[in-house]
């Protein structure tokens, strides 16, 4: 299954919308996007996981790696709108206490770039 990743920025904040399955085969695509993104130095990255059907340990490791790199620079990585299957993985692994998890994408990040 293909993984779709799209990003949008607003005032130093980035929303990364992910759709599909994050697994051993698709995780490198997400990793590459984070590497590109983190080069721009955003202070806050929110991952919109409302379109993610499945995420395995490889995907979680990509998220943890990005979180670590952002924290080293005083930034934050947050997870938004995880579906029940992804939320369960976060809870079982204890990562729901590592990441800030939002029910939906925070409203202040829904403003489009053109209005900025």
Automatic annotation (TrEMBL):
It holds the Pfam family STAS. CDD domains: STAS_anti-anti-sigma_factors. GO terms for molecular function: anti-sigma factor antagonist activity. It comes from the Bacteria. InterPro entries: Anti-sigma_ant, STAS_dom, STAS_dom_sf. Residues 3-112 form the STAS domain. NCBIfam families: ant_ant_sig. Belongs to the anti-sigma-factor antagonist family. This is Anti-sigma factor antagonist.
């Amino acid at each position: 299954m293909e993984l779709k990743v799209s990003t949008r920025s607003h005032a130093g904040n980035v929303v990364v919308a992910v759709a599909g399955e994050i697994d051993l085969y698709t995780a490198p695509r997400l990793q590459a996007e984070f590497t590109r993104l983190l080069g721009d130095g955003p202070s806050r990255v929110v991952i919109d996981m409302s379109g993610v059907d499945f995420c395995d340990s490889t995907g979680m490791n990509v998220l943890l790696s990005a979180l670590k790199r952002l924290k080293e620079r005083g930034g934050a990585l947050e997870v938004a709108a995880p579906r029940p299957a992804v939320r369960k993985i976060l809870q079982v692994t204890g990562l729901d206490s590592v990441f800030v998890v939002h029910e939906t994408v925070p409203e202040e990040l829904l403003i489009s770039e053109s209005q900025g």
